């Protein structure tokens, strides 16, 4: 027998299925991998506690109260947002918006709130010590990679997720320096493209020449710029992972005998560039542009941190009191 001919209805159903699959893929891509991991962690925590989805406001409030000592209030806030988002995507009423739930969380913040643990900002003297330490190491691919990674990461105020995704094709060499076009970034999820300019240095510190030297020595002409190097100092095809950037920085910190290695991470690049620039009285707009910040709030916070001693009301008063004591002698 001849196979049954495909009906118009069957074709329409197939097209609808394909369109639905395509739509689901784009819905999935609308959320970052980090956010999805956070959502999964929130659901696992809630279900281990004994909760079931969907849930009610009273159950959420009980969960928050029971976990108030074990979990940081900021973590509970994120988990609550994730659980609420789960209900929203299912087309259900969001119990996280219930006034009683919000009041419960506010009470937990008042009782158990504590300062946010921040990574340590790298100062210019730390960068100098790092570079001096690298200079003294035996010649190797890893040495040249770390020399370039350190300078590009700091002077470009890059996030680690940005550093490890830079490819040769993203580099534009100019007489004055280098322009890096980031195809994707935390503040540019739609891929409009962010540009970060790195000027040439006049002395031994120059992120542009450091990167040129690394690419030449490693023979990298395309693909990822910062790549893994194995224990035999052989270049690997894959890009460094974000965790590897942290490990490289911590290892340098330990070699240099820094006393804040536990609070050192790749974010120390961004905090370091912004606070160091603030101490040198660099213009606000320049700092914001170099770090690719979209909002003023974060930049102002870094500037205040960098200038907490240089623009300190007590400095003038200290000098005044000292002059009064000297005048009475």
The rounded distance between the terminal residues' Cα atoms is 118 Å
Our estimate of the beta-strand percent is 5-15%
Based on CA inertia axes, which overall geometry fits? globular
What topology, given as strand order, has the largest sheet? 1-2-3
Bin the helical content.
55-70%
Supply Rg.
26 Å
Mean of pLDDT: 86
Number of helices: 14
The ordered string of helix (H) and strand (E) elements is HHHHHHHHEEEHEEHHHHH
Tell me which oligomeric state these chains represent: single chain
Give the secondary structure arrangement, pairings included.
Elements: H1 8-29, H2 33-49, H3 57-67, H4 73-89, H5 99-112, H6 124-135, H7 141-155, H8 160-163, E1 171-174, E2 177-182, E3 194-199, H9 207-218, E4 227-229, E5 235-239, H10 242-255, H11 267-279, H12 284-291, H13 296-306, H14 313-328
Antiparallel strand pairs: 1-2, 2-3, 4-5
Helix pairs in contact: 2-4, 3-5, 4-5, 6-7, 7-9, 7-11, 11-12, 11-13
């Amino acid at each position: 027998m001849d196979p049954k001919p495909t009906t118009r209805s069957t074709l329409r159903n197939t097209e609808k299925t394909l369109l639905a699959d395509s739509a689901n893929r784009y819905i999935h891509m609308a959320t970052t991998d980090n956010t999805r991991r956070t959502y999964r962690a929130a659901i696992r925590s809630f279900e281990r506690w004994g909760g079931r989805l969907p849930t009610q406001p009273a159950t959420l409030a009980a969960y928050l109260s029971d976990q108030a000592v074990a979990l940081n209030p900021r973590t509970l806030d994120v988990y609550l947002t994730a659980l609420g988002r789960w209900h929203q995507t299912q087309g259900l009423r969001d119990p996280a918006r219930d006034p009683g739930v919000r009041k419960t969380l506010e009470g937990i913040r008042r009782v158990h709130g504590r300062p946010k643990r921040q990574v340590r900002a790298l100062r210019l003297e730390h960068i100098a010590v790092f570079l001096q330490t690298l200079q003294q190491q035996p010649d190797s691919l890893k040495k040249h990679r770390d020399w370039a990674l350190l300078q590009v990461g700091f002077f470009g105020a890059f996030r680690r997720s940005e550093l490890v995704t830079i490819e040769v094709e993203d580099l534009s060499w100019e007489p004055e320096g280098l322009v890096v076009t980031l195809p994707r970034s935390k503040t540019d999820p739609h891929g409009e493209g962010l540009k970060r300019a790195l000027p040439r240095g006049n002395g031994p510190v120059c992120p542009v020449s450091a990167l040129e030297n690394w690419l030449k020595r490693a023979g990298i002409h395309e693909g990822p710029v910062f790549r893994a190097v194995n224990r035999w100092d052989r270049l690997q095809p894959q890009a460094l992972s974000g965790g590897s950037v942290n490990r490289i920085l911590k290892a340098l910190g330990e070699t240099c005998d820094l006393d804040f290695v536990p609070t050192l991470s790749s974010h120390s690049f961004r905090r370091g560039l912004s606070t160091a620039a603030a101490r040198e009285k660099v213009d606000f707009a320049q700092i914001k542009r170099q770090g690719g910040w979209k909002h003023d709030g974060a930049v102002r916070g870094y500037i205040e941190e960098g200038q907490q001693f240089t623009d300190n009301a007590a400095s003038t008063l200290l000098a005044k009191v000292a002059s009064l004591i000297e005048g009475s002698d």
